[in-house]
Design goal:
Structural class: alpha+beta
Largest sheet: 5 strands, mixed
Number of strands: 5
Distance between the termini: 24 Å
Strand content: 35-45%
Number of helices: 3
Shape: globular
Strand order of the largest sheet: 1-2-3-5-4
Length: 112
């Protein structure tokens, strides 16, 4: 079906990168949005993280929508950051910090 986990971890800076993949037969059902919400909540509440980030190809509109829906903020483009699809590809960087997460629990749409 898919997976979602922290794919890199920085103990000193209490930061982690989130990675996820979902089989296309399950797209547009809200599944990954809910999974990522739970993982982010776990990261901030149980693992004491300060920042969670995620990246994706600019052409991956589904992933972009998921990150925005859960309250992650667009930070910019990492130009020619990875080798994929037989070429060097840009990646869009998104993040959520603990302050945004806690504010969203109180009064925002994002991560509820």
């Amino acid at each position: 079906m898919g997976s979602c986990s922290f794919v890199s971890w920085d103990d000193n800076n209490r930061r982690a990168e989130l990675g996820y993949v979902l089989s296309n037969q399950y797209w547009n059902q809200g599944i990954m949005t809910e999974v990522i919400r739970r993982i982010i909540e776990f990261g901030f509440k149980d693992l004491d993280l300060i920042r969670i980030e995620a990246r994706c190809l600019p052409s991956n509109l589904g992933s972009l929508k998921v990150m925005e829906k859960i309250g992650m903020k667009y930070e910019g483009v990492l130009r020619r950051h990875i080798w994929a699809k037989n070429d060097f590809q840009d990646l869009k960087m998104y993040s959520i910090i603990r302050d945004d997460f806690e504010r969203g629990l109180k009064d925002g749409p994002g991560i509820r």
